[in-house]
Design goal:
The protein has 764 residues and is α+β, with helices and mostly antiparallel strands. Helix content is 33%, strand content 25%. Bound molecules: beta-D-glucopyranose (BGC). Beta-D-glucopyranose binds at residues 343, 356-358, 483, 485, 596-597, 631, 633, 677.
Length: 764
Amino acid sequence: MAKAADVYFAVDPWKIIEKGFNPAYSRVSESVFSLANENMGVRGYFDEGGCQDSLRGFYVNGVYDVEHIGRSYKGIIDKSHFMIPTAEWLGTCITVDGEKLELQQSNFSDFSRTLDMRAGTLERSFIWHTASGKDLKITFLRFLNMVNRERAYQRITLKACNFAGKVGFSSAVSFDIAHEGRGKCFWQDVKCEASKNSVMLKGRTLQSEQEVFAGAIVDVSATVDVKIAGKTAVVSCTLNLVQGQEIRADKRAVILFDGTEGELLWQNGLKAMDALGNETIEDALRIQREYWDAYWRTSDIQIDAAEEADEDAVTAEQQGIRFCSFQLAQTYSGGSMRHNIGAKGLTGEAYNGHAFWDTEACCLPFYLFTNPAAAKDLLLFRYNTLQNAIERAKMLDCKGACYPIATLNGDEACPLWQHASLQLQPSTAVAYGIWHYVHLTKDQEFLRQYGAEILLQIARFMASRVELGGKNGKYGYFGVMGPDEFHMMVNNNAYTNYMGMRTLAYAAEVLEQMRCEFSDQYAKLVQKTALDEDEIKDWMHIARNMYIPQDPEGLIEQHDGYFDLPHTDINAIPVNEFPLYEHWAYDRIYRSDMIKQPDVLMFLYLYNSSFTHQEKLINYDFYQPRTIHESSLSPAIHSILAAELDKMDEAIRFFGYATRLDLDNYNRNTREGLHITSIALAWVNIVYGFAGLRSDGEMLRFAPRLPDRWKRLQFSVIYQGRVILISMEPGKTSFRIESGEAVEVMIYNQLYTLDKNETMIDRQ
Ligand code: BGC
């Protein structure tokens, strides 16, 4: 593996800690110290600014603007949309004797910054040594309410260490905030009002005309003055500090994006501020703590180090998996079909906030086994955007529905035609997601009401995009790009062919079953979609005759001509050449057998039970040394397959990479934001990798393989209304139903009935 960890943060099982401020690492830290509550997200930037390399990113889920690209060729999008930063509510200015606090210019000591994953808070503190010889200890605390998701909080604590006297303080809420990449502010018609210690603002985006309300109450024990200037409202005062005593400034903010606009939004905003009422920050902190306690009770993965193991290394793994779980649960926990999961969540402008095929291919298992209602909401997002996908297919001269590779609102937003037009994996991933959800939850009602219609339209698309190939006389996809984005415009990409085949077969099976068993609902669907029954026959015919390029030993060629490509020794690439997109000419990346991420291995993972051990082994051994993991989705898939193939050293190495991808900045691009969707795969890595869970058979299957350096691995999964607790120890694993009814599962290929008593299984 060519990638290496860049270790920076202190190791702790529940906290991410930065000791001392390193300006060269400031953007990476900002990403890592991001907070979110699904409704909004904020990078870990300094409230008071003064850091040169910084992205002041505060984002509200679903808030975006639009840009017109101009029409070029048919099928290439002419307008795109992108997430924009919204009302900045943390702005703070602190002055002493006319000197302004700005850490990169100021003299300070004892800097530390801590993300507490049990409390759901970010705290930063240091002692400022002013030019006039005063020492002021300052602590900034912030959090985003996980229960009342329009609420956000900041607490600033000041302590004069060696003086008594005045400190200037001001606190702002502002719509005057620029999108960094596009270099401009996307907020207009900003209305600002103030009353006593409260400020209220409302802004509208330039093109998408979305409206957001932002208000804050600033509680300080001093007389305040409020000023409104342009798109900003500022509350300021002079604080009188007594030596050795702490003084606090508490800010409670409301950021409301509820689909209303104008006066109605304004009134809703005022009501939401009223509702803050007497709830103090202490109350909110307690509720926040309770939320996270409940989350960890059901969703924690616990790892204990074996006696002879390097304890720090295992604690780093524990910290890594908790960080992934925390960040994912912050970003999306369901309840809204308006949102999906951005590849970078709400942690940066890179990828424009867009959601990708990652949601169904990578994130869904986490939700299926920890929060199935959220999994359903994610699929309903696709149902609600089906019409956008139907329009997109038409643009591509196809029928049915083509789901976007990158989107916030359902429209294709990727301006790179190679990705937007050639990647069919978003559509096949949605079909896979529906199958996986229904397979595990048995939610037939969802399937008939929503899933079947999506499947029908995706199958139509896949059938209209397929061609009969010349040399082999079978069907295949030509001019496509599979998951491996280092090979574009290829023919017979095995992933696309295989997933297309499974999609068509599944859609046909679902519709056929509906026709026989639920003829009324089927008839309505036929009428709504003008389905011709010959279409279903056609899909089955294509599926039966799809070309899968596999040799007699089982090795699958990634696409036509792949085996003839020149070889690149990926281990010879120096670490300072990552990310490759920044260091290698765009076209240079595409000229060899180096692959970005699993492609063949990806479908061997997704449809794991459909392939033999030998098929997995031969393909893993061939593709693993050619994979450079420039996609964060890559290492976990390798780890899972390596564990299955009993290559435990490799499995644990890839697991380290997958779980600490951002904490250790493996891909050298964490500064742009966190890899939220691959973070989901870290959870999958443990559960599918080391517990050997497989969810694509008739019943759940487990094949636990505990890494030697662990004494215990414990976690639980939710399955059809029951909670199964799994506790792995060297040589044995115990299974117990914590709540719900008994269930049959396969463990090391033998049938067991799990119930409330412990079932202990020896390692095989
Ligand atoms: C990967 C894609 C992925 C996207 C967003 C790209 O680097 O190649 O597979 O969908 O990132 O995570």
